[in-house]
């Protein structure tokens, strides 16, 4: 974050100062008092069960020098009526001051956002100082908090943008109009919230509509709903994918015994071989999206390929780990929807398993699918049964998966039962995938195994 005095912050956000207004904030803003850094700003919210204002003292002990909230705290405090609006206003102000020499990339899609953001951040960081979304902090608070981590040295600002309603992404591009907009896909994530894929497409298209003048749209050539967003773009358009007409095309895709993809990225002018240290063929498409965005930012293709070979993803995205019992764990427990679950099951199927070893899919509920939820879960069960030797389903909400998986299903009532069953039944030659929506908390099962 650029240095700002508490009194100056108050002026920017329309607040008042309680305490020492001469203090200067020099480090990022945080919502969690435990994550405060020396010189940082603690943003306090009064929630239904917890009042963040009560934790300002702990934030101060961690290094925060000031707070922003709706009442005075133990730290010098900028007091406002609406803390969320104030954080957004502060973020917009900071990025506006940094705009000369700063390239802003916005990225959205129904699945693959965080992995692609990680890939792109790795590529751009190899070229110049880059600030990118941490994990999946991609909402109305996560985006401005990421913006506030930018400073005078930042040359690339990568913002993952999520949406649960039409208008969410438009509100985010209202804080900062991106120079590059990456749209990965239009899938079924949050289908229950949106009601239809057409509505999801409208929401994702807001990123392209929100481009800065002359900005570049990066669109998935393999997804007709995304390609149709070309009509929203007033500036250049680059496409990515496996389609023959893609500007950045994935060719010769192959997986090794550990499920890691190798392929060629080809443009009209050049080509480069890429090997990713990640699991899953779907990561090749994510890599092509990141490559297209990096090319639009001026990074040469050979530098893109070199950086992709070293990337690491945010936690719980098909993390491959050897367990003490000798089995292999694929922890993909961060989130799930039908499309991402099929990709994870394909990755499980692609892994080489020793003779006598089994592929075991441990699947929990996929949330927010609306009226199609039961049918989608049954379909995933059938898909899993074709790719795994056993399909362990966790919780009542995942029972339709067991129905779809037929005689390969092992229905389990909860996370504790799933962990106990796996401890009892896993052999050293097995490979187990753990996958569900975040609300199912199957990371607990993965942690119990690890």
Helix amount, in percent?
25-40%
Per DSSP, the total helix count is 16
Cα radius of gyration in angstroms: 23 Å
Query: Can you count the beta strands?
Result: 22
Give the mean pLDDT. Answer: 95
Q: Tell me, what's the shape?
A: globular
Query: What's the main sheet like?
Result: 9 strands, mixed
* Proportion of residues in β-strands: 15-25%
Q: What would you call the structural class?
A: alpha/beta
Q: What strand order characterises the main sheet?
A: 9-10-8-11-12-13-14-15-16
> Termini, distance in Å?
37 Å
Offer a concise description of the structure.
The chain has 450 residues and is α/β, with parallel strands linked by helices.
Overview of the molecule:
The protein is α/β, with parallel strands linked by helices. Helices cover about 35% and strands about 20% of the residues. It has helices at about 5-15, 55-60, 85-100, 115-125, 140-145, 170-175, 190-195, 195-210, 225, 280-295, 300-310, 340-350, 375-385, 400-405, 415-425, 445-450, and strands at about 5, 15-20, 25, 30, 40-45, 65-70, 75-80, 105-110, 130, 155-160, 180-185, 215-220, 235-240, 250-255, 260-265, 270-275, 320, 330, 360-365, 390-395, 410, 430-435. It has a 9-stranded mixed sheet with strand order 9-10-8-11-12-13-14-15-16, sandwiched between helices. α2 links the parallel β5 (about 40-45) and β6. α12 (about 340-350) runs parallel beside α13 (about 375-385), α13 crosses α14 (about 400-405) and α15 runs parallel beside α16. The longest helix has 16 residues, at about 85-100. The model has no long low-confidence stretch (mean pLDDT about 95).
């Amino acid at each position: 974050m650029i240095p700002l005095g508490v009194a100056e912050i108050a002026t920017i956000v329309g607040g008042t100062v309680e305490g020492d207004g001469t203090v200067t904030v020099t480090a990022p803003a945080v919502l969690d008092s435990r994550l405060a850094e020396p010189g940082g700003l603690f943003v306090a919210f009064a929630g239904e069960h917890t009042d963040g204002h009560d934790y300002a003292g702990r934030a101060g002990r961690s290094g925060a020098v000031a707070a922003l909230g709706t009442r005075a705290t133990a730290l010098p405090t900028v007091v406002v009526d609406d803390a969320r609006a104030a954080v957004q206003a502060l973020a917009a102000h900071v990025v506006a001051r940094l705009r000369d020499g700063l390239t802003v990339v916005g990225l959205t899609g129904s699945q693959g956002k965080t992995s692609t953001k990680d890939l792109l951040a790795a590529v751009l960081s190899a070229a110049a100082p880059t600030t990118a979304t941490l994990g999946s902090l991609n909402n109305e608070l996560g985006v401005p908090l990421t913006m506030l981590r930018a400073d005078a040295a930042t040359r690339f600002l990568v913002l993952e943008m999520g949406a649960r309603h039409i208008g969410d992404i438009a509100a985010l591009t209202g804080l900062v109009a991106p120079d590059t907009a990456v749209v990965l896909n239009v899938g079924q994530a949050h289908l229950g919230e949106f009601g239809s894929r057409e509505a999801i497409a409208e929401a994702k298209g807001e990123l392209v509509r929100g481009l800065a003048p002359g900005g570049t749209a990066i669109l998935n050539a393999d997804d007709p709903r995304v390609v149709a967003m070309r009509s929203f773009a007033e500036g250049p358009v680059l496409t990515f994918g496996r389609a023959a007409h893609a500007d950045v095309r994935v060719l010769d895709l192959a997986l090794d015994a550990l499920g890691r993809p190798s392929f060629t990225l080809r443009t009209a002018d050049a080509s480069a071989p890429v090997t990713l240290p990640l699991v899953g063929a779907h990561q090749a498409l994510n890599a092509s999206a990141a490559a297209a965005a990096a090319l639009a930012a001026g990074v040469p293709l050979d530098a893109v390929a070199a950086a992709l070979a070293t990337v690491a993803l945010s936690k719980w995205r098909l993390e491959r780990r050897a367990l003490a019992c000798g089995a292999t764990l694929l922890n993909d427990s961060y989130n799930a929807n039908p499309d991402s679950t099929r990709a994870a099951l394909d990755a499980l199927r692609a892994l080489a398993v020793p003779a006598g070893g089994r592929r075991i899919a441990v699947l929990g509920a996929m949330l927010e699918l609306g009226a199609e939820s039961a049918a989608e879960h049954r379909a995933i069960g059938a898909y899993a049964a074709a790719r795994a030797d056993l399909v362990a389903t966790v919780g009542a909400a995942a029972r339709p998966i067991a129905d779809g998986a037929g005689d390969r299903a092992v229905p389990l009532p909860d996370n504790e039962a799933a962990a106990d069953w796996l401890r009892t039944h896993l052999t050293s030659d097995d490979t187990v995938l753990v996958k569900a929506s975040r609300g199912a908390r199957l990371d607990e099962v993965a942690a119990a195994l690890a």
